[in-house]
Amino acid sequence: MVLGSLRRMRRIGRRRKRRRAPAAGAFAAVLVVGCAVFAIVAGGSRRAEAERVEWVTMGTVAAFMFRDGADAAKAQTVRETFAEIERLLNAHDGASELSRLASMPDAEILERCAPLVRPCYEAAFRFRDITRGAFNPRWRGEGTMDLGGIAKGFALDVAAARVGECDALIDLGGNLKACGGSWKVGIHGSPRTLTLTAGMASSTSGEYFRGRHIKDGRTGADVSNGLYSVTVVDPASAMTADALSTAVFVMGGGKGEAFAAERFPDATVIVAGRQ
Predict the structure, then answer these.
(1) Domains in the chain, CATH or no CATH each
(2) Nearest to residue 35, comparing CAs of 199, 264, 229, 179?
């Protein structure tokens, strides 16, 4: 059976048991937990039934939601993908590839890292450059590396590519990626809802779940700018949504939104101030 599916599958909307918190230090701390998910039928309002397979990985809770029972086995592909990326990019594991490479210059990291995760490093370095350090994988200082603000989005993109198009939604700590179908998501603390269809992704950065923990990559200090949350919806990339939500949160509403509009015009950015 896939992931003990007979024990763990459940219909969305059924009362859930309390989740156990992930083990401390299992992975770089999750920056986004904020999207509630509701299954809907594309083009209509009748709620469709969906199954959910859930497990703990990368320091958070992951889930694979699907409507066609034939897709149940694909949850194993997602689980294996997340585990593979966690082994490579775990900043809290001294034996991980990331930890071994952290002290090297950027160019050398790109030469030596596993081909699978090179796009994640490349995107992290690019975001650091275009945000002038607001997003910074070396926010702890030179010789360090933390991809916690982008790795989960990257893992979603890899998993979705391996699964292929199907009526399913992948959730990694509140980072969402639709493999197909139509999925309605609600933003924490907001009456607004969004609909994700094939390829679309969303990410929310905020302090409402874990308190003040998002770091300004330029100073290494906690961010304090009056924002409650930043949600980004990208039409094709969970990795972009993940990094951009963090960057906009660090920059602040006005500057962040202007930056996103200029650099990522296809993305939708929703900023909420503290209530």
Answers:
(1) 28-273 (3.10.520.10)
(2) 229
What are the per-10-residue average pLDDT scores of the chain (275 residues)? 34 36 35 43 52 96 93 96 98 97 98 98 98 96 95 98 97 96 86 93 81 83 86 97 97 94 97 76
Token duo for residue 24:
């401390």
Q: Residue with structure tokens 């596993």?
A: 114
| CA torsion angle 7 12 18 22 (round to 10) | 80
DSSP state of 102: T
Number of residues that make up the chain: 275
Residue of 107, 129, 132 whose CA lies nearest to 118: 107
HSE-CB of 88 using CA atoms within 13 angstroms: 21
Q: Which of 223, 222, 212 is nearest to 249 (CA)?
A: 223
pTM for the predicted model, two decimal places: 0.84
